[in-house]
């Protein structure tokens, strides 16, 4: 059970506190498969046919940059105020989490 939106990294509790359905958010607004199919479509498309935003995202994607994703932002929480410092701290904790996951996946498995 995931308690954080995979796209914007905002916690389920914050949606609940603002009387917004977290499941609606993750199934509509930030539905991960929309992002996945967008990327797949981009990779399959002829690079010469990219429009401005597509070239921008394709470039970011090939550099493994994720700052084009709406990190800590969603139109559903319009009055949300998060300082740059809070956003940075959350970004760091997300990176730390990824490192832990990576470390776990690299551990030799006992047979
Ligand atoms: Zn989200």
Shape: globular
Radius of gyration over C-alpha positions, nearest whole angstrom: 17 Å
**Could you give the distance between the termini?**
28 Å
In terms of structural class, how would the helical and strand content be classed? Answer: mainly alpha
Tally of contiguous helical segments: 5
Biggest sheet record: none
Name the helicity range. 40-55%
Could you give the order of the helices and strands?
HHHHH
pLDDT below 50 for ≥5 consecutive residues: which ranges? none
Give me the count of strands: 0
Strand content: under 5%
Ligands and ions found: zinc ion
What is the averaged pLDDT score?
A: 85
Count of domains: 1
Please characterize this protein's 3D structure.
By secondary structure, the protein is mostly helical. The protein has one domain (12-106). 55% of the residues lie in helices and 0% in strands. The protein is built from five helices and no strands. The two termini are 28 Å apart. Bound molecules: zinc ion. The site of zinc ion has 7 residues, from loops.
Layout of SSEs?
Elements (H helix, E strand, L loop, with lengths): L11 H6 L4 H8 L2 H13 L7 H11 L21 H23 L5
Bound molecules: zinc ion.
Zinc ion binds next to loops.
Short description:
The protein is mainly α and 111 residues long.
Label this structure with key terms:
single chain, 111 residues, mainly alpha, 55% helix, globular, binds zinc ion
